[in-house]
Backbone:
DNA sequence: CTCCTTTTTTCGAGCATCAAAATAATTGCT
DNA sequence: AGCAATTATTTTGATGCTCGAAAAAAGGAG
């Protein structure tokens, strides 16, 4: 059994982590405010701040805040020391990839983008591809390169249990590959993989304060269907355990054919290709289109809005698939918000009734009520924000491990 | 935001809680072993033990352990002081109720049972009913009565968000009633409600060591269908948030009529009444039988085993409903074990193929593999064990709040 | 009766926090 | 210019918990 006991060290980490965390989301804060936000005493904050400033992690920002002058001693705000560390963030999608360099404060310094196609990874191993991107960034930013301390990636698919690669992915050529080899080139850092759906949830929550402490399911609807959930501000399903493969939940056994090869997935009804297939009365066992041009999807939404019957019906099917999916989750999680993110957000008015009635059509829906539905069209910002948040908090965490508290007290004047 | 910082008090609670927790599941332990199990130092364990013994919570068990005599100083085992506190445990089912008195060590001292019918709570308010039961126990056990410090109940249905009552319940007359009124009679203790399904999961995990750190879904199949999950030994969906209404997950929209009034719930296919209805080719929109005699269900299993086609088919439908339900959950939780508990455990051989193939028929099933399926026929033991565990650990927890560490050190001899 | 072995307790740090008091840095008033 | 008022930060001293090491306890073995 041998569980771990707490000691003075545990509590030091805890509180330092807390301080850094609060600083992350509130932005620079005076020591006094930081004490108030964290609930720690001023004395403690002084000590913690001294440590961090000593290590160069935080620094005093003494910009003359021209705001309004207040009475007493002016507050000097404490902020992250932007250039003490950098992170490399990859975003891998079905048709494009990007590699961004961000500083410790979360500001983007540089970014490289590249298109991805179904055959990209036939020619070059994914790990090599990533390593090359990383190398280009490093060459272009020689000053920052040596201070890169974290490499994280947003990916689509199912992570293996160790989190080092993908067991399945809609991005062709990615599954089964060892991705950690970026190591070879970019020093000996591990590559940390995060599911796109989960980052989306995290990022969206950061964007809307009202979601901070709520129980939220964030659903991406577009070229695929994905989802992440958070409860009282905590991501659900810790690390390797949860696989929010919402899009591939079976909606109707032996139903429409999905890109994953299964029949009846939610995605096969609600992703762009599913709606399109239904709208054009293509048999739903026909192989899904490999990619749907954005314009075509938008036009479909337009025509449904004009009342074109087939299009309207197709979106109703989509709404029903999403609604029953949420409904089924609600037997386990009591959700209060649903956020629809991605190009499908446009289509919410066409799906809303079906979503709500599907949820209401069950015991849990009747008892708990239908969650409030919000939309956020753009998905790239939340994903990036989510990835930043993960990478930076990972760095923050890693800073507590070795810190041997110097304990030098300055003499009294 | 104002999250809480840790301090020396936090760590004291943490470690004391840990010690008590370990002692709960390992049984009495020598201080040395306790130190090893908790990872705390001997010195700390001595201090903690001294505090608890001083408070009368723990005591030295000096029974002559006739085991094998070892060399050095004999270990003196530390155990719970059974009679320092008592708990009252209610179990409310559709057709019977019980009220048990257990001591702080978890041993049952007394129990009252009573039948429940569909009209029981027309005549008497549930809170009054509970209070009367409690009163009878208290009168019968005058010595223990004043030391009852916890009242907990196992219930079926959906808890309100405050956890003080039920918003819905299959037990007629229970939903919407304030249950906390037991207070009036049994001093001013709150009544703590726990979902039967979750207790079942907790109790089953305690019964099978291999499940301790695994990801498990425990499914009750019998007169209803219920479920609880645990991950690495932690219950999923903390307190008020999760509502494991697995039985009422919609399997097939507009499908078979369920007791809850919804159509298509898993329960409508997999609970005894659902299987029976299907086996006798009663239209599945016919109102469910209010109660199925145990014998009748067993006979149905027998006849399916003999190969009677309608019965076989009915159980296959049940297996499919359960399998797809699990499948759908597995889009969020990566399960490694499924335990079927209750009278339906007998029918596992009739359902197993369908359960497994339904799970395998999806992306997650293919990637993660089908969980191992176990059975445990009797459901009452795990439920009781689970309820005991909850009540006792609740008591343990409450003991840290007021403890102002006396700090009296005995003089050296 | 003395040595050995194993369990517990005692002792003397080490450290992180906290409350309260002291110190700093400004603004506002006279 | 000088002093009072005000707000931010640091210093001080105390408290409380844990830990490692050493000491004490309690039997068994020879």
Residues:
């Amino acid at each position: 059994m041998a569980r771990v006991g707490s000691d003075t060290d545990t509590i030091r980490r805890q509180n330092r982590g807390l301080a850094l965390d609060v600083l992350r989301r509130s932005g620079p804060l005076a020591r006094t405010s930081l004490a108030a936000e964290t609930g720690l005493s001023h004395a403690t904050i002084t000590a913690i701040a001294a440590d961090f400033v000593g290590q160069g992690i935080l620094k005093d920002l003494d910009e003359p805040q021209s705001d309004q002058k207040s009475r007493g001693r002016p507050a000097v705000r404490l902020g992250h020391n932007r250039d003490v560390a950098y992170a490399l963030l990859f975003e891998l999608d079905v048709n494009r990839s990007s590699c961004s360099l961000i500083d410790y404060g979360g500001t983007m310094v540089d970014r490289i983008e590249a298109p991805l196609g179904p055959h990209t990874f036939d020619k070059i191993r994914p790990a090599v591809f990533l390593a090359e991107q990383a190398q280009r960034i490093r060459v272009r930013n020689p000053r920052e390169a040596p201070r890169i301390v974290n490499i994280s990636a947003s990916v689509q698919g199912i992570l293996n249990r160790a989190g080092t690669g993908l067991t399945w992915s809609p991005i062709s050529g990615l599954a089964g590959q060892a991705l950690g080899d970026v190591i070879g080139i970019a020093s000996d850092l591990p590559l940390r993989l995060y599911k796109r759906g989960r980052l989306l949830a995290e990022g969206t929550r950061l964007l809307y304060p009202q979601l901070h402490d709520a129980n939220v399911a964030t659903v991406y609807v577009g070229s695929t269907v994905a989802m992440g959930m958070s409860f009282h501000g905590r991501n659900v399903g810790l690390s390797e355990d949860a696989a929010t493969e919402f899009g591939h939940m079976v909606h109707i056994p032996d139903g429409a054919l999905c890109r994953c090869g299964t029949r009846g997935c939610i995605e096969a009804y609600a992703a762009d290709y599913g709606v399109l297939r239904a709208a054009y009365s293509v048999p739903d066992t026909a192989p899904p289109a490999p990619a749907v041009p954005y314009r075509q999807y938008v036009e479909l939404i337009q025509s449904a809005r004009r009342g074109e019957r087939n299009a309207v019906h197709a979106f109703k099917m989509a709404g029903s698939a999403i609604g029953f999916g949420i409904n089924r989750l609600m037997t386990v999680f009591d959700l209060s918000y649903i956020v629809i993110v991605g190009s499908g957000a446009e289509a919410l008015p066409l799906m809303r009734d079906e979503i709500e009635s599907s949820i209401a059509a069950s015991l849990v829906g009747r008892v708990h009520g239908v969650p409030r539905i919000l939309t956020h069209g753009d998905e790239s910002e939340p994903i990036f924000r989510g990835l930043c948040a993960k990478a930076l908090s990972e760095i923050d965490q890693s800073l507590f491990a070795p810190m041997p508290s110097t304990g030098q007290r300055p003499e009294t004047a």
Notes: Residues 40 and 187 of chain B are 38 Å apart (CA to CA). Chain B has three domains: 8-80, 84-189, 210-376. Residues 5-9, 30-32, 42-43, 45-47, 49-50, 70-76, 409-410, 412 of chain B lie near DNA strand C (CB under 10 Å from a C1').
